[in-house]
Design brief:
2 helices; twelve-stranded antiparallel beta barrel; Porin; 253 residues; 15% helix
């Protein structure tokens, strides 16, 4: 009888320790993935992006970014180098530098399963015409994250992009994008994200919707491999931007 009780106690203690270890490991993987912006982490990343709009041109983006996390603050810089291939008789690539972006984020509320973060991204239009948005722009955003359980997260992030320089020579920029996603993480290191992204352009009074599936894999030692796609759901937006495919690798510190 005593042996059975001791065995049962040992089983309960061992199971509890394993559950805590699994939970800590899952929390580490979620944080290092970069999926949830309310979980601040220092990381560097490189992404290779292909955009295939209707017509004769294909754009290839090389995107570099670095994120510095300090307590609940996050500071990041992003830079893009763009190559555009025109599928015509010449069939040539042209390359140009894109915009330079800086952002700051503060996860000002983190309690239990709930978290809130406010951020702002500043775009410097350093790219030559056709290789950036050509706006000196600001994009404030607010992110709400709900951890359903250690391996399942729901989040919503409304963000508003507008140009800081006004005038007749500067076209208007006023776009509201709402990023909504649910992310599932597995013990084997994979994570799967589905993101519907409604977009409303106040300047043109046009509504668009992008569907973005994401698949990632934690490689260990802070490395993550991420692949995702973006599919416009309206014909006008599909013809304008086409589907977008991205593969990247990041390293958390």
């Amino acid at each position: 009888m005593k042996s059975s009780i001791l065995f049962l106690l040992l089983f309960v203690v061992t199971s509890s320790a394993m559950a805590q270890s699994d939970s800590a490991s899952m929390a580490k993987m979620v944080k290092e993935s970069g999926i949830d912006p309310t979980k601040v982490q220092s990381r560097g990343s490189y992404s290779f992006i292909i955009s295939d709009p209707s017509g004769s041109s294909i754009s290839i983006f090389n995107k570099l970014s670095f994120n510095l996390g300090i307590n609940r603050w996050s500071f990041s810089g992003k830079y893009e180098l763009t190559s555009r291939y025109t599928n015509n008789a010449e069939g040539v690539f042209s390359t140009g530098s894109g915009d330079l972006k800086f952002s700051a984020l503060n996860a000002f509320f983190v309690k239990g399963k709930h978290a809130l973060a406010a951020s702002a991204e500043l775009t410097f239009p350093l790219g030559k015409p056709g290789y950036g948005i050509q706006y000196f722009a600001l994009m404030p955003a607010l992110t709400y994250s709900f951890t359903i359980n250690p391996s399942l997260i729901f989040a919503v992030q409304p963000q508003y992009l507008f140009n800081l320089v006004k005038g007749d020579n500067y076209p208007q920029l006023s776009i509201l994008t709402t990023r909504i996603f649910i992310a599932k993480f597995t013990k084997s290191g994979y994570f799967f994200v589905f993101e519907p992204r409604p977009i409303y352009n106040f300047t043109t009074n046009q509504f668009d919707l992008i569907l973005a599936p994401i698949i990632g894999k934690a490689l260990g030692k802070g490395f993550n491999l991420v692949c995702f796609a973006e599919f416009p759901t309206t014909k006008r937006f599909w013809d304008q931007t086409g589907p977008l495919y991205q593969a990247g690798i990041s390293k958390s510190f």
